[in-house]
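Table 4 source record.
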Amino acid sequence: MAIFVDENTKVIYQGLTGSQGRFYGLRNRDYGTQVVAGVNPKKAGTDVDGIPVYATVAEAKAATGATVSCVFIPAPGVQAAVLEAAQAGMELVVVITEGVPAKDEAYFYNRVKRDFPGTRILGPNCPGIISPG
């Protein structure tokens, strides 16, 4: 069985400043996940309970060394968010958002598979991942 995330994995949250991203980001941090940054272009330079927020995934990755992104943004923005994470070189993108249009999912899945083979996608409509130890 593959372990996608362990105690050493650095994770960013696209949508950390929203209600669901904040709720789960802080709880996951309390559980032991290294939630090292959030991404929101409109709230860059702020923080969520000490977690810095950056304008782009690339900036967050450069500042923190994160390799995983969790997507907690509304369905209409998921396609762009997944592609941004893949372009930034994220190894894994976990899409929590539900209600993503099938055509968007098909597009970003095929685009990532073709253009960014080093990026894996889990989701959308994913309840998250856990590696109980």
